[in-house]
From TrEMBL:
SUPFAM superfamilies: CoaB-like. Residues 16-64, 136-239 form the DNA/pantothenate metabolism flavoprotein C-terminal domain. Signal peptide: none annotated. Belongs to the PPC synthetase family. This is DNA/pantothenate metabolism flavoprotein C-terminal domain-containing protein. InterPro entries: CoaB-like_sf (IPR035929), DNA/pantothenate-metab_flavo_C (IPR007085). GO terms for molecular function: catalytic activity. It comes from the Eukaryota. GO terms for biological process: coenzyme A biosynthetic process. It comes from Linum tenue.
């Protein structure tokens, strides 16, 4: 709670704060977990978006899956310590020339964001951790009213094994085929909007592999959970284009293909920031 409040204290208490969720949740199959069901997500969208929000002056609570892509390090190799450095003689270490410019470009921004109280990183792994952390963050941000935003880019599990029905120890394969009943994860979006942070600006994401049902399901989520926006993205084209679904219509957002290093998150977060600013003005009237 205190760390979230510290983020909000900047700019005389008028700082905008966004909770960016990123990465996929796991569903443990045993209480002493060995096996689990995982949701697909690299965390790229959340990490990239967090950078743009910080750049725009937002304080960011980055609720992320352990081991996924992080802000300001997404351009580095998967194992940067080993791939970017090499031994030079017996006791010296030097950076490889092909990575020096990349490190020089990205490395100053992370400590600046942390020192400026603009980035708080909070990890999760399981669906249980994610939902508990989201509730804590939302309640801490509730006093911010419309200055608070939730950018819910995490890939949250739809089904889980209730703790009381879960095996305590590792499931044994010698027992034969596994028959397990999963139940639906409680939908927290409605509770977030109604109870945890009712005045916050809320954006959720809808990912589908079938483009024919994508916009219909995004529109359904918008109305059912009273989101301010739902970002509809199709699996194969999610890095090139998304559709922002609102009560006023559908807005396509595209990556600028004329720029080789561009991404769709830059125009997407710009659109969202503008909509959030309008929401704040209208709410404070």
């Amino acid at each position: 709670f205190s760390e979230c409040r510290d983020l909000a204290a900047g700019d005389g208490g008028h700082r905008k704060v966004v909770c960016v969720t990123s990465g996929g949740t796991t569903v443990p199959l045993e209480q002493r977990c060995v096996r689990y069901i995982d949701n697909f997500s690299s965390g790229h969208r959340g990490a990239t978006s967090a950078e743009y929000f910080v750049k725009a002056g937002y304080a960011v609570v980055f609720l992320h899956r352990r081991g996924t892509i992080m802000p300001y390090t997404r351009s580095l190799p998967e194992d940067p310590l080993l791939e970017c450095l090499e031994l030079d003689g017996d006791s010296s270490i030097r950076g490889l020339i092909e990575f020096l410019s990349l490190i020089t470009h990205t490395s100053p921004h992370l400590p600046q964001a942390v020192a400026g109280n603009l980035l708080l990183k909070l990890p999760f792994t399981t669906i249980f951790e994610y939902l508990q952390m989201l509730q804590i963050i939302a309640k801490a941000m509730k006093p911010l009213g419309p200055l608070a935003m939730f950018y819910l880019a995490a890939a949250v599990s739809d089904f889980y094994v209730p703790w009381q029905t879960m095996a305590e120890h590792k499931i044994q394969s010698a027992s034969g085929p596994l028959d397990m009943r999963l139940v639906q994860v409680p939908k927290m979006l409605a509770i977030l909007r109604k109870e945890w942070a009712p005045l916050a600006f809320c954006i959720s994401f809808k990912l589908e592999t079938d483009s024919k049902i994508l916009l219909e399901k995004a529109d359904m989520a918008l109305r059912k959970y009273k989101m301010h926006m739902v970002i509809a993205n199709e699996l194969l084209t999610r890095k090139e284009e998304v559709t922002v679904v609102t009560v006023d219509g559908k807005i396509p957002v595209y990556r600028d293909k004329s720029q080789p290093d561009s991404d769709v998150e830059q125009p997407l977060t710009e659109l969202i920031r503008n909509k959030h600013s309008t929401y704040i003005k209208n709410t404070n009237r």
